[in-house]
C-alpha cells in the first residue's frame, strides 16, 4: 500500500510486470483542506513552497531591476489570489499527470484510506465510507507525515499549517509563524517577501540539526530584512477576536525562561513546529510492525524492510532517515529494483545534499561544523571560508557581506571535503554539483586545481581569485578557535 | 643656449645615469615585471609580491578606434565578463518583470528600459573595480605604471605614457599578459569608421538603438542577447555556424532560444559595406551566400564581434626573439608558460592554444609566480576547464563536446545520456522551456567515466561549477547516479539522467 508520491517505485514495480496497487488518501486538515494524488512534496511541500519562494524572489527582482534601468510606476503590489490560483493550477496538472502515469503503467489506483486488518490484508475505505479488502504478497508503507499541532486552546480551530497555507483562499495578512524548522523559516521568508508583516516565534534554536553557524546567519539575514523574531517564547493560547478572511487572532505566549507572558494580534497564525508520522492509525499492530512509540517512526534495515519480512517502508516515516523527496524516490526505486529486478544496490544515505529555500538560500552537503568536530576532533578539521558579493547584487547595492561559503576538510584523510555549506542565491543549483564531487571523494587539492566559471557565485567555492576589491572576498584558513 | 642645454642634459643624464648605473651594475630594478594589468597579469604580480619580491605592473589601454578607453583591470573587468554579466542581468530582470505578473505582482504598464541609467550603474561599478585594483596593488607593494610597454632588450622595457614621456624599467623576469582586442573586418568598407566593438558597447552613454551584431562568437550572441532583452531591435549576422568550437547541438539550442526570444538572425550572410546616412543611421549591405543575393537595411549601431587578436604589435617582440604563432599572432609558450626566451613568460589571452578565460589566466598567473618565486613545481592544468555562455538561455559546459568525444573515442565507445526538462519556475510563468536541455557524454566501457557535461537553462554557470569539480575527480556515471538530487532544482536532473541517445526513447522529463 502506498499513501503518496512514490509513483516512481510503483512505476518501477509495474515495469517488472508485477500487479501493483496504490492507495492514496488525504485526511482533511482541521480546517477542511485536502488535495490530490502526489503526496506532500507535490501538494503542500517542495513544489508550492518553491513557487511561492520564487514569487518572493521576483518581488526582490522588481526592486533590483530599477537599478538596472527598468522603469515602471512606483507602486507595485502583490495579489495573493493570482499567485495561489496559478500555483494550484500547476499542482492540479501534476496530480493529473500522476494519475495518467499510473494508468499508463497499469498500476491500480484507489483514492482510499488503507489500514492493515490482518496479515497480508488491507482494508481500503473511500471518502464515502465504502470498504474493500485487498490482499498482496508484499506491502510498502509510505504514508509520510502531517504537521503537528501545539495542543493548546484554539490551535486546531484558528491556526493553519503548511497543509493549508498553499491553497489559502485569501491573503494571510499579518502572520505569526510558530516554529524554527525550515518549514517555518521558508514560509516566513516568502510571506515577508510578498510584502506581509511577518513574525516568527521560536522556542529555542533555529534549524535544529543543521549547521548552527549557518542557521544563525539565515536568521540574521531574515531579521535584517524585516522579519521579526520573538525568541524563547511558546504560544499558550489562541483566541479569535474577529471572524474573517483573514480574521483577527489574539495569541498569548509564555517565556521559556521565566514567567513573562506576552500577547500579540495577528490575522493568521501558521504552526510549523514539526511533523508527525502517519503510522498510528493504519493497523500496524494487526500485522506486528514495530514502530518507535515516541516518534511514531518505523525502524527499517538497510533494505528498507520492517521487522515483518513482507512489509517495507520508505520516505518521511522512516526512523533515522532524512525527510526529503529525492531520498524517498531513490529509496523507493532501488527497493523495487532489488525486489523484482535482481539488483543489489542499496540506497546511499551518506552525503545527501539539501537546500533550505529561505530568502537567503542555504545549500549543504555532508557534515555541519559541529558534527565534524564531534566526529573527527577539532584538531583534525580544517575549515575554509569566504564571504562573497554576487555580481548581480553590486549594481542594486544589496548586502555585500552576507553571502557566505564554507568547506570543511578532514586533515587526516588527505584533506577530504566532508562538509560543504553555501549561503547565497541559487544555493541549490550551486550545491548539487558539489554533492556529486563529494560523492567522488573530493579533496581540497582537487578543489584548488579546478578552474572556476566566471563570473558566477559558485566559483567562490573553488579557490579562484576573483578580480574584485580585496575588501570583498578572499579565502583564508580559519582556525576553529574563533 | 649651449649652457642651458648642457645643464638639462646633465639633469637628464643624472636620472639616466642612475638607471644606467644600476643596469651597468648588472642588477635589474625589479624581480618581476608584468606587462598587462588584466586578469592574468594582476594575479601573477600580486602572487609574486606575496613572496617578498620587487614587482611592477605596466598597464595601458590604447583607445578603441571610437575613442573608448578604461582603467586598470584588463578586458574582464572593463569590457568583458563583468559589464557583460551585469547587462545580461539587466536583460534577465526584464524577463523577471514579465514572470512576476504571473506570480501575482501587479506592475502597471508601461515598462521601459533606460539604457543610460543601466550603463552608468555598470560603468560606476567597473570604475570601483579599477580603483579596487589600484588599492590592492598598493597594499601588496606592487609598483604600477600606466605606460605602454615595449622591449628594448631582453631585460629592459621602455614604457611610454599617454603624453609621450618615457620610463625605462629593467627586470630579472618578465611576464607578458597584454591580452587581446576585438578584430575589425577591415575589408568591409566603413567597418572601422562606423562600427563599434565590445570595447565600446559597455561604455556607450546613449542607447545603441536598433543594432546589428556581426559574428557568431559567444561575444556576439551574449551581446545580442542582452540587447534584445532590454527591448532593442537586434539582429545577428552570421557567416556560418554559431559558437564554433562548442558542442554544435547545444549551440543550435542556444540560437533557437534566442530566435524565439526575439533576436533576428541573418544566417549565411557576410557584410560588404557600411555607409552613413544623412539621418546618422548606418546603411549596411550584405551578401546572402545561400541565395547569392545582396540585401540591405539600416541600423543605429553596428557592432563587430568577429574575433579577437592578440595585442603584441607594440611589444617589439622580434627584438628579443619571443616567438609567436605566424597565423594567430599569439605568443607560443610551453607547459610552464615560458616563451622561447628563458626568462620571459606569457599568460592569458595572449598565449597560443589556451582557453581565453579569466579564471584560467588568473590560475596560470598565480601558479607561474609560485613556480618562479615560491619553490612550487605545479603546472597549470588546462583540461576540463568549465565555461558558461551567458546568452538569454545560458549554456554551461565542461569537458568534451559530443563531436569531440566521438572523434576521440568513436561513437560505439561513448554513451550520451540526455534530457529535456522544465525549470519549475517556468511553469507558473508560462515560459517556453523547449530548449532547456542537458546531456552527459560518457565512456561506454565498464567504469563509464564522464567525458563531458552540457547544460542549457537558467543559472547554467552555478549548475556546472560543482560538476566540473566532480569531473576533476574522475567522476563516473554510476557515481553521479548515486548522488541524491536537491529538490526542486534544475541541477538535480543531472543526477537523474538515464535515457540514452542510442535508445531513441523520448528524453522529456515528466513529473516529480
UniProtKB/TrEMBL annotation, chain A:
Disulfide bonds: 41-46
Domain Pyridine nucleotide-disulphide oxidoreductase dimerisation stretches: 352-460
Gene3D superfamilies for this protein: 3.30.390.30, FAD/NAD(P)-binding domain
One BP term from GO: cellular response to oxidative stress
Signal peptide: none
GO molecular-function terms, A-Z: flavin adenine dinucleotide binding; glutathione-disulfide reductase (NADPH) activity; NADPH peroxidase activity; thioredoxin-disulfide reductase (NADPH) activity
Similarity field: Belongs to the class-I pyridine nucleotide-disulfide oxidoreductase family.
Protein name, UniProt field: Thioredoxin reductase 1, cytoplasmic
Record organism: Anser cygnoides (Swan goose)
Taxon lineage: Eukaryota, Metazoa, Chordata, Craniata, Vertebrata
UniProtKB/TrEMBL annotation, chain B:
Catalytic site positions: 487 (proton acceptor)
Gene Ontology process terms (BP): cell redox homeostasis; cellular response to oxidative stress; glutathione metabolic process
EC numbers, comma separated: 1.8.1.9
The record's free-text note on cofactor binding: Binds 1 FAD per subunit.
Binding site for NAD(+): 215-222, 307
GO molecular function list: flavin adenine dinucleotide binding; glutathione-disulfide reductase (NADPH) activity; thioredoxin-disulfide reductase (NADPH) activity
Disulfide bond among keywords: yes
UniProt-listed Pfam families: Pyr_redox_2 (PF07992), Pyr_redox_dim (PF02852)
Cystine bridges: 76-81
Protein residues bound to FAD: 85, 149, 349
Group of enzyme by EC: oxidoreductase
Domain FAD/NAD(P)-binding: 30-365
Top-level taxon in the UniProt lineage: Eukaryota
Any one GO cellular component localisation term in the record: mitochondrion
Domain Pyridine nucleotide-disulphide oxidoreductase dimerisation, chain residue ranges per copy: 385-496
Cofactor requirement: FAD
Keywords: Disulfide bond, FAD, Flavoprotein, NAD, NADP, Nucleotide-binding, Oxidoreductase, Redox-active center, Selenocysteine
Family note: Belongs to the class-I pyridine nucleotide-disulfide oxidoreductase family.
UniProt protein name: thioredoxin-disulfide reductase (NADPH)
Source organism of the structure: Anser cygnoides
Amino acid at each position: 500500500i502506498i499513501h503518496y508520491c512514490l509513483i516512481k517505485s510503483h512505476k518501477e514495480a509495474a515495469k517488472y510486470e508485477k500487479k501493483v496497487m496504490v492507495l492514496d488518501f488525504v485526511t482533511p486538515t482541521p480546517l477542511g483542506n485536502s488535495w490530490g494524488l502526489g503526496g506532500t512534496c507535490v501538494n503542500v511541500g517542495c513544489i508550492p513552497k518553491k513557487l511561492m519562494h520564487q514569487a518572493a524572489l521576483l518581488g526582490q527582482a522588481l526592486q533590483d531591476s530599477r537599478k538596472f534601468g527598468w522603469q515602471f510606476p512606483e507602486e507595485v503590489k502583490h495579489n495573493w489570489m493570482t499567485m495561489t490560483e496559478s500555483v494550484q493550477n500547476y499542482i492540479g496538472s501534476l496530480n493529473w499527470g500522476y494519475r495518467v502515469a499510473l494508468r499508463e503503467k497499469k498500476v491500480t489506483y484507489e483514492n482510499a484510506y488503507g489500514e492493515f486488518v490482518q496479515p497480508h490484508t488491507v482494508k481500503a475505505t473511500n471518502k464515502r465510507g465504502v470498504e474493500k479488502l485487498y490482499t498482496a504478497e508484499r506491502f510498502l508503507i509510505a504514508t509520510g507525515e502531517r504537521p503537528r499541532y501545539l495542543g493548546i486552546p484554539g490551535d486546531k480551530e484558528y491556526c493553519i499549517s503548511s497543509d493549508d497555507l498553499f491553497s489559502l483562499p485569501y491573503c494571510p495578512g499579518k502572520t505569526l509563524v510558530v516554529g524554527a524548522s525550515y518549514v517555518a523559516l521558508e514560509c516566513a521568508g516568502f510571506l515577508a517577501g510578498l510584502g506581509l508583516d511577518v513574525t516568527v516565534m521560536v522556542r529555542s534554536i533555529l534549524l535544529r540539526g543543521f549547521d548552527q553557524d549557518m542557521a544563525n546567519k539565515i536568521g540574521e539575514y531574515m531579521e535584517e530584512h524585516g522579519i521579526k523574531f520573538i525568541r524563547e517564547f511558546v504560544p499558550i493560547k489562541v483566541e479569535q477576536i474577529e471572524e474573517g478572511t483573514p480574521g483577527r487572532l489574539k495569541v498569548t505566549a509564555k517565556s521559556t525562561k521565566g514567567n513573562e507572558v506576552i500577547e500579540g494580534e495577528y490575522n493568521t497564525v501558521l504552526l510549523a513546529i514539526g511533523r508527525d508520522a502517519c503510522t498510528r492509525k493504519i493497523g500496524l499492530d494487526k500485522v506486528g510492525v514495530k514502530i518507535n512509540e515516541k516518534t511514531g517512526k518505523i525502524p527499517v534495515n538497510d533494505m528498507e524492510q520492517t521487522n515483518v519480512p513482507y512489509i517495507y517502508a520508505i520516505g518521511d516515516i522512516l526512523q533515522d532517515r532524512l525527510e526529503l523527496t529525492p531520498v524517498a524516490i531513490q529509496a523507493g526505486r532501488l527497493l523495487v529494483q532489488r525486489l523484482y529486478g535482481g539488483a543489489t544496490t542499496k540506497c546511499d544515505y551518506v552525503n545527501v545534499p539539501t537546500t533550505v529555500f529561505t530568502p537567503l538560500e542555504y545549500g549543504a552537503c555532508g557534515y555541519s561544523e559541529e558534527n565534524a568536530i564531534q566526529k573527527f576532533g577539532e584538531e583534525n578539521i580544517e575549515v575554509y571560508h569566504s564571504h562573497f558579493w554576487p555580481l548581480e547584487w553590486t549594481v542594486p547595492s544589496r548586502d555585500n557581506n552576507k553571502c557566505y561559503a564554507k568547506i570543511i576538510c578532514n586533515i587526516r584523510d588527505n584533506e577530504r571535503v566532508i562538509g560543504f555549506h553555501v549561503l547565497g542565491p541559487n544555493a541549490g543549483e550551486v550545491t548539487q554539483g558539489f554533492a556529486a564531487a563529494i560523492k567522488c571523494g573530493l579533496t581540497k587539492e582537487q578543489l584548488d586545481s579546478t578552474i572556476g566559471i566566471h563570473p558566477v557565485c559558485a566559483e567562490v567555492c573553488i579557490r579562484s581569485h576573483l578580480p574584485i576589491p580585496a575588501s570583498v572576498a578572499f579565502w583564508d584558513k580559519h582556525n576553529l578557535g574563533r | 643656449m649651449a649652457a642651458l642645454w648642457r645643464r638639462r642634459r646633465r639633469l637628464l643624464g643624472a636620472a639616466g645615469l642612475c638607471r644606467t648605473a644600476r643596469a651597468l651594475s648588472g642588477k635589474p630594478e625589479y624581480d618581476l615585471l608584468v606587462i598587462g594589468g588584466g586578469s592574468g597579469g594582476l594575479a601573477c604580480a600580486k602572487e609574486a609580491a606575496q613572496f617578498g619580491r620587487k614587482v611592477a605592473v605596466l598597464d595601458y589601454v590604447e583607445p578603441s578606434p571610437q575613442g573608448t578607453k578604461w582603467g586598470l583591470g584588463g578586458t574582464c573587468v572593463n569590457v568583458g565578463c563583468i559589464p557583460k554579466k551585469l547587462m545580461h542581468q539587466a536583460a534577465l530582470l526584464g524577463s523577471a518583470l514579465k514572470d512576476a505578473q504571473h506570480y501575482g505582482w501587479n506592475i502597471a504598464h508601461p515598462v521601459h528600459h533606460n539604457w543610460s541609467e543601466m550603463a552608468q550603474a555598470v560603468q560606476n561599478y567597473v570604475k570601483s573595480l579599477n580603483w579596487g585594483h589600484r588599492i590592492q596593488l598598493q597594499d601588496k607593494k606592487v609598483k604600477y605604471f600606466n605606460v605602454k610597454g615595449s622591449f628594448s632588450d631582453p631585460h629592459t622595457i621602455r614604457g611610454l605614457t599617454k603624453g609621450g614621456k618615457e620610463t625605462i624599467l629593467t627586470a630579472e623576469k618578465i611576464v607578458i599578459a597584454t591580452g587581446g582586442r576585438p578584430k575589425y573586418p577591415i575589408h568591409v568598407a566603413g567597418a572601422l569608421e562606423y562600427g563599434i566593438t565590445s570595447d565600446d558597447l559597455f561604455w556607450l552613454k546613449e542607447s545603441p538603438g536598433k543594432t546589428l551584431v556581426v559574428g557568431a562568437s559567444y561575444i556576439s550572441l551574449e551581446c545580442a542577447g542582452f540587447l534584445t532583452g532590454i527591448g532593442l531591435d537586434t539582429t545577428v549576422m552570421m557567416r556560418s555556424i554559431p559558437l564554433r568550437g562548442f558542442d554544435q547541438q547545444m549551440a543550435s539550442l542556444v540560437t533557437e532560444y534566442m530566435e524565439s526570444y526575439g533576436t533576428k538572425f541573418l544566417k549565411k550572410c557576410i557584410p560588404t559595406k557600411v555607409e552613413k546616412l544623412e539621418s546618422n543611421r548606418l546603411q549596411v549591405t550584405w551578401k546572402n551566400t545561400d541565395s547569392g543575393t545582396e540585401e540591405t537595411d539600416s541600423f543605429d549601431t553596428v557592432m563587430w564581434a568577429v574575433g579577437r587578436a592578440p595585442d603584441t604589435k607594440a611589444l617589439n617582440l622580434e627584438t628579443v626573439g619571443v616567438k609567436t604563432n605566424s597565423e594567430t599572432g599569439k605568443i607560443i609558450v610551453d607547459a610552464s608558460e615560458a616563451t622561447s626566451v628563458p626568462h620571459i613568460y606569457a599568460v592569458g589571452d595572449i598565449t597560443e592554444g589556451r582557453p581565453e578565460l579569466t579564471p584560467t589566466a588568473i590560475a596560470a598567473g598565480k601558479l607561474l609566480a609560485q613556480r618562479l618565486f615560491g619553490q612550487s613545481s605545479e603546472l597549470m592544468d588546462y583540461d576540463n576547464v568549465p565555461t558558461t555562455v551567458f546568452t538569454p538561455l545560458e549554456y554551461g559546459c565542461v569537458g568534451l563536446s559530443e563531436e569531440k568525444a566521438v572523434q576521440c573515442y568513436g561513437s560505439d565507445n561513448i554513451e550520451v545520456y540526455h534530457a529535456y526538462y522544465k525549470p519549475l519556475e517556468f511553469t507558473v510563468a508560462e515560459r517556453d522551456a523547449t530548449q532547456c536541455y542537458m546531456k552527459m557524454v560518457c565512456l561506454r566501457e565498464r567504469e563509464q567515466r564522464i567525458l563531458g557535461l552540457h547544460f542549457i537553462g537558467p543559472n547554467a554557470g552555478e549548475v556546472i561549477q560543482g560538476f566540473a569539480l566532480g569531473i576533476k575527480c574522475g567522476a563516473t556515471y554510476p557515481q553521479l547516479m548515486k548522488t541524491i538530487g536537491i529538490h526542486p532544482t534544475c541541477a538535480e536532473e543531472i543526477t537523474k539522467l538515464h535515457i540514452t541517445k542510442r535508445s531513441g526513447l523520448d528524453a522529456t522529463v515528466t513529473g516529480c
